[in-house]
Amino acid sequence: MFFKSWIFIEFLKLRFTRILFRNHSASLQHYRWRKFQSVLKKSPFYRPFILNDSSLVNLPIIDKKIFMSNFDKINTIGIELSEALRIATRAENERDFAPMIDGITVGLSSGTIGNRGVFLASKKERVQWVACILDRVVGFSFKRRKVAFFLRANSNLYSSVQSKLLMFQFFDLLEPLEVLLEKVQKYQPDILVGQPSLLIEIARKKEIGKLTISPKKIISVAEVLTPEDRDFIQRIFQQTIHQVYQCTEGLLATTCKNGVLHFNEDYLIIEKQYLDQSKTRFHPIITDLKRSSQPIVRYELNDIIHEKKTCSCGSKFLAIDSIEGRSDDILVFNSIDGAQVKIFPDFFRKAIILADQRIIDYTVVQISTKKLSVFVGNNKELEDKCLISINQLLEKFRVESIEIEFVKEKLHEKATKLRRIRNESK
What we know:
The chain has twelve helices and 20 strands. The protein is an alpha/beta fold. Helix 11 (345-355) packs across helix 12. The chain is globular.
């Protein structure tokens, strides 16, 4: 009972703070940064950088490699990486996500093997996360609602949402798709949460009458939601598709009533590392002013963010026009002049979908600087149109002749994130 009451208190604090600092997020960030320095003094990694009222710019910018190699020093609760990995890996292998370390939830990110992050969450942080989910994702209601949550792995963090008013059911993506569809049909959720590749499968089944669920809200997580995937799901379910931008580094952004993602700048400080001269793309550098067990400070993500200058919802929080993918999925070629050419994933996405409106499922995988593997369905006509469109794109960037191989199946491993455009040549 105490846990649920604590969540309600944090929920009210979020609402009150948002109203009080509606147009003054910078003041709120400054206040919280000053308080947050007492947390950083407990971190062996950050302690040397913290003086009295230190400026954020005095601290180093780090990335995932630095973060994981300093895991033991960064966290403030003395948990070693080896122990955290042991608990989290056992949970995944046994599909039992209850074990914790001294009351601390431990989880793995859904990255590739050898490149996966480890997150820690204290009881207080679990409370704050649930309060934010209630406030900005599922919404608070006195009506009893059922949530169907599709993901690769469960967590104490996610199951904390469970209450008398909000029934939470985890659907394991490692199970066969037909089994999952049968279960969700029987469950009849009010809120459907899953990655776009799974939501598309559900939408297709609904379109042909094989599934008769009618959720009141659909939330996309884990993968990039492309405009064409969003439009398809919205057309089938006749509603705005919402998103949650969350990773090992925290709950970063949620959608407003218009379906536009906004960074949670009431507790995040977002710096931008621009990637192009036009300053249309940037890497977000994240500082989370609420993460105390595992501080996230000036952490540069390799996600490619397109900024949206304004949103009609009225929120002053930084809006996201789109998440293009990751920087390590920028495709790299040689030009006819011998120079290196880098092409952002979004150029290939547009080349594919504009080739023919019937193309709704596709992948482009770079095998080497001279070879692409492309899937657009087992259709020779679509492949021919796609070949012309891709070659036109490559000619525009003066890329030397490359081999384009069309495959009959997507290169996508079950229960992993679907990345439609990716570079596997490294």
